[in-house]
């Protein structure tokens, strides 16, 4: 911990002894006597927040493999070998983080990302909760989507369209020829598995197993929504002949699917032999193969708790008329809300003017904005 010890490296500390003579202690003695207990306490009670490859999204075009915090050796090797793929993953990271925030925009935990934080999501990700399960799944899905998309668009040297989709086949509408540019989803899954899972495969504990499981669920979610797109040929568009290809659906469909899986996530415990896990509820029937899994309960996101990574809901905008998660009663955790009356300017009475413009008028209206009250301090705190 150089930030604790560095101040003492170039100085010695003098003090007066009882007989009036000057004496001194060496820096090492001072450190051992004063700071070692502090360091031990820090190590015992402060969990480390590891950096993550997720931070690639914040680097943009400045991706330099040796400077990306949180990469393990295998990830760094893949980065050095395929720098163009890292650019795609960096752009994909922005997309899946945005999707995460879209899915939870009306919830107490809203997938918030502290600024200049190499962990991206802060301490909340330390807990093996259902929120962590969703983040790992959506991030893994985001890598698959980004790589597959880049392959099909010809942005990567190592891959292109799915060359295995050739010849004739059929569906409910009849026969068709494979053609066009089918998305190479299998390559996207293969690379995502190698890159994203690399850190988790270095350890064998409940959290690593949980992350690996949710990573796989995220990858498979993208493949689940592959769709058949076709182009018709024939006289007057009769569609007597069709050329078809497989394409990924919009990433929002993957986000919606994983969000539903978050709602039904299964709490699990690790097997005694450490090779897998089972549902914590003994009455659980079925398999967790396609479910998100978590190990610990979520923290209370109502209150600010820096140790748990919770930002609380004070100041969050809520919907007064809603009975759902975005409603003021739920969002504000029963603390009540403040109302501000604001003036809003919007475009209205738009008319098309020949040729070729649209003219609008600025309209003003008054809207009420409701925000959650802060948590009330106990009265006894105000007396101390």
TrEMBL record:
The answer to whether keyword Glycoprotein applies is yes
What highest taxon heads this organism's lineage? Eukaryota
Give the UniProt keywords, A-Z.
Answer: Developmental protein, Disulfide bond, Extracellular matrix, Glycoprotein, Lipoprotein, Secreted, Signal, Wnt signaling pathway
Q: SMART domains from the xrefs? A: WNT1
Q: Which InterPro entries match?
A: Wnt (IPR005817), Wnt2 (IPR009140), Wnt_C (IPR043158), Wnt_CS (IPR018161)
Can you say where in the cell this protein is located?
Secreted, Extracellular space, Extracellular matrix
Stated family: Belongs to the Wnt family.
What's the protein called, per UniProt? Protein Wnt
Q: Which organism is it from?
A: Electrophorus electricus
